[in-house]
Amino acid sequence: MTNIPLSQSLEKSAQCVRPLELLLQAGTLSQQEKEVLQNALSTMGMQADTLQENLQTLVNQYQKFNSAAKQQIWERKLLDLTLRNSLLNYRVGKNAYVVPNQLAGQIEDTLESGQEICLESAALNSLYRAMRNSIEETGANTLYLALGTLVWIGKDKKEHKAPILLMPVELVKLKGKNTYSIRKRDDDTVLNITLLEMLSVDFQLQIEGIQPLPADASGIDVSLVLHHVANAVAEQTGWQVCDDAVLGIFSFTKFLLWNDIHTNESLIAANPLIRSLIEGRLLLPPAAPMADIRQLDAVDMPTSHLIPLDADSSQIEALIDAENGLSFVLSGPPGTGKSQSITNMIANMLYHGKRVLFVAQKKAALDVVKERLDKIGLSTFCLELHSNKVDKRHFLSQLQLAVETTHQKVGNEYETLANQLFIERQKLSAYADALHKKREHGYSLYQCIENMHDAFISPIQLPPSIFASKENDLLKTLTQRVVDLVGLQSILGIAPAQHPLYGLYPIKQDAKALSSYIKQDALENQLPQLPLVLEGLKQQIERNAKFISKTTKQYIEVDYKCKKFFQVAKVSDNLLEDIDAFIAASQRWNKHINLLPQWGSYVSQLQALEQMGLGDVIARFEQGESVESLCKALQLGFYQQLARGIVESDPLLKDYSGIKMEQIIKCYTQLHHDFQQLSQKELLSKLSAKRQTVQTNQSCSAELTLLRKRIANKGRGASIRTMIEQMPTTLPLLCPVMLMSPLSVAQYLDAHAEPFDLVIFDEASQMPTSEAVGAIARAKAAIVVGDSKQMPPTSFFSLTQTNEDEADIDDLESILDDCTALSMPMRSLKWHYRSKHEDLITFSNIHYYDSSLITFPSANHNQPKISLQQVEGYYDAGKSRTNMAEAKAIVAEVVSRMQNEPNRSIGVIAFSLGQSNLIEDLLNEAFVENPNLEQQNATSKEPIFVKNLENVQGDERDVILFSVGYAPDQDGKLLMNFGPLNKAGGEKRLNVAITRARYEMKLFAVLRADQIDEKRTSARGVLDLKQFMKYAAGKDSLQVAKNSSSQTDVIAQQIASWLRQQGYQVETSIGASACKVDIAVATSTHAESYKLGIILDGSHYYHLNTTSDREIVKPAVFNMLGWNLMRVFTLDWFLYPENVKKKIVEKLTHSTVLPLDR
Hints:
Blueprint: H1 4-16, H2 20-25, H3 31-44, H4 51-78, E1 96-98, H5 104-112, E2 117-120, H6 123-138, E3 143-153, E4 159-173, E5 179-184, E6 190-191, H7 193-203, E7 215-216, E8 219-220, H8 222-232, E9 240-249, H9 253-263, H10 265-270, H11 272-279, H12 293-299, H13 313-323, E10 328-331, H14 338-351, E11 356-360, H15 363-375, E12 382-385, H16 392-404, H17 413-436, H18 445-450, H19 474-483, H20 485-492, H21 511-519, H22 522-526, H23 530-543, H24 552-556, H25 560-565, H26 575-591, H27 596-611, H28 615-622, H29 627-649, H30 651-654, H31 658-696, H32 698-712, H33 720-725, H34 730-734, E13 737-740, H35 742-748, E14 758-762, H36 769-776, E15 782-786, H37 815-821, E16 826-828, H38 839-848, E17 866-870, H39 884-900, E18 906-910, H40 913-929, H41 931-938, E19 945-948, E20 957-963, H42 986-993, E21 997-1005, H43 1020-1032, H44 1050-1061, E22 1065-1070, E23 1077-1082, E24 1092-1096, H45 1099-1103, H46 1107-1120, E25 1125-1128, H47 1130-1135, H48 1137-1149
Parallel strand pairs: 10-15, 10-16, 11-13, 11-14, 12-13, 14-15, 17-21, 18-19, 18-20, 20-21, 24-25
Antiparallel strand pairs: 1-9, 2-5, 3-4, 3-9, 4-5, 4-6, 7-8, 22-23, 23-24
Helix pairs in contact: 1-4, 4-9, 9-35, 9-36, 13-14, 14-15, 16-32, 17-31, 19-29, 20-27, 21-27, 23-26, 27-28, 31-32, 35-36, 39-40, 40-41, 42-43
């Protein structure tokens, strides 16, 4: 095989149009690579002087070879012809049970007639569990009744057993211990195709007369089939055919997947995304840029996209990208609304006339999306063909509903309501922008108000002219001037007010002229004349009373000498007293005239401050106010005046009214709700109108007639695939959405049919690439939804079938990993909704998501909702590998909670399969003793589940109970073996497990965290378990994470300070992420719950991307979490603080602590 480094060098050379001759001369190739290249060129008949023009041909040939190699890897992963495959080598035990006293033909006749066969055996319990888990994990029931067995000798010279015919059946649990009935499913009995393939490939054996299967009066002629097989292998030594019936787990689903990609190889390789996976580089066609929701929120009409369910901005961005035909990865950590996002995506695609294929491996994942689609009325437009539910009756019943269902037209109301909603959205967006957008000085109104730190300091008064400056750092410059006053004071050596020349100020003039005059001693010559001038002025005032009403300054300026050089800093209304004081001061000045140069230097620098408009600063400085205080006063005055100036100059803010804002929000919220409801009707009307074309379209007429015939005769004589292929025009109009598993895609959809516009994969971290490519090939674009921090495929621990030479082109664990490795465009869902208490998600958020999830605090934020119960007991390491003490404790907890909290659903997660089986057995025994509880569980919307780390992804419950299981044995020895947690990726399993709870988690463990020796393991899963146990016990530092926050807003601090003065218990910045309750008020009687939550419109508010995020999604989540909310607008607090205080008191007076119910 040509090695990969050579391929990469060739491709790079082709892209750079570099002569291949230079490539051979370069030192980057090994000798082996050069030899391979020379041999390839020789084979192609190329010479060095013609290499460049043929270089791309060589690259193309390599890529074709590489494609074939990748295809072979995928096929080998799907078609398992090894002895690990139970279709070729089953063993009687927990996954295979020989039905006693039954011949293959007899039991086939019985079950085909509709009868059931009752069995009683403890061996059936494991088969029942395996059947149920297979349905939940893969959507396929892998329980079959093997009719006839081929006993064959392999190349290992050992005897092996393979089923010949496979009848699809189900086990139905009956009353009584270990009692079940076998019932045939509504599917056909089939040949073991994998066996036939193995016989052909390994032994060159062909079996005649069994395709199609021969029939008898009751169904298949089983005896004849076994006869033909026996004849075909008659010459094989030691081989024989047994006429028996074996109930077992036989999965031939991957054979269908293999057959799909094998027969459609060229079509699959032509898909751009699959081509990218083959070549290991992104080859997607050019597409529209990814959406910027913040920009779109300002301009997009509500009718641009259809969003029938509430969605945050990260979800809407993904929806728009899907609408624009982009292929991308959608990263969805636990509880971030993946299913709701997918539902909105599907609805929006339908709104734009597109078709969608939704693919999920797990039945649970598909059911969640299907349920949401049903709730918005789209059930009849969706065709569900997930493997477990597929039969002709189910298929045709869906199509019958599709044909019969109609919807009324909405009319013009949709457009009218959209216009109204857009107007209200613009108003709220405009307010947010007006409050937070930066103005010409570099400050927003909110920043100005927020920076008014100390309301107890008298602000510096600044002249309006100072704000005419275009300087970006004006406040910084002004502040520096104030700080420089410390240096001015050092010139004098004492405080200015204590200086002998204090009060002697030159009339305003430029500093240069003043300095020059002082140097010429002119001032010194004029100063002695001042007392005489003042005495004369005094006499003049005494003679003429009419001058008394004028200021001293005006009189002084009458005299030329005084006018030119001096002015008085302060004057009073008593002019004669001022003159006397002035005379005394002038006499003092004359005595210390030798200090004039020093004083003049100080005054000349003050003059620069006064020219900047800092006269108020100078006056307060000379009165002894500290520079630190002056800086605060300057900042307060600057921001106050700048804020008022912004308000006065902005028409929107000038007419601001808090009451009006509340009315706009209320109106917007109601319009949003009404429009959302009307959107659902609009979509149904639009789809129904499109569906009506089936009645008038000539190409659909014959197809519709045939469909009605199929419905009438229940599809007799036609397979589901055949019926789908017979409706190429009608089916897309009736059901533009198909919900399937990878298996049902391969089984029912022709790869050459008209492609879907979009395929969406859910839980993609659990889907191998080899199983996804068939679905990818059937669509124009693909969205791969999943979380790389969660579970890989359930076959994670199986042996690889890829040899070392293929390691560089082999797949990663899942289609999600492979698409991520391609650097495929990526979106991320960030808002976490599942956990109704932040404790439940904080550990995962910090350890696995770098605290990137936006989580929400609940009104019972201070009540712990995760706990650890230490149990006395041991782990039975040598025998059952279970922990009986923990199992009993958990079952007792389940029974107690069912009796005392019947409305809370429960899930149990064990860290091993053996422990989950033990807990389930004990729980069944408890139900036998308490039939009422069994009935309660059976009728519950969410019955109790008992699962292990391997199969719990996609599930959630109100309360999750954990059984660690692993612990010291009876002798006190701890083996440090924690099953899957010890393996690579064990931390992903732990992450899945600890994020399943909505309301509460409780950990049961014999093991103590301190018993996990970090020196004895490097497995991250085990180390994280230790930290999680400490966290659950309340001993981990993460416990304080829920109270950690960024700096609290100044307004929040001011309101909180005032509330504390009123006697309330107050906390600020409640929450562990960006979405916080700014102020939370509790009462002394309900210290663990908050009576009132106050949210502000500060920076956190503005940083939310859309008006819907701010006014719909965030408040709705807080209300769901039990908060009694009140909003305080920044402008209200700035302009009318007393009114705000009055409203808060009224709200608190009439508030009660709300219970956090479901």
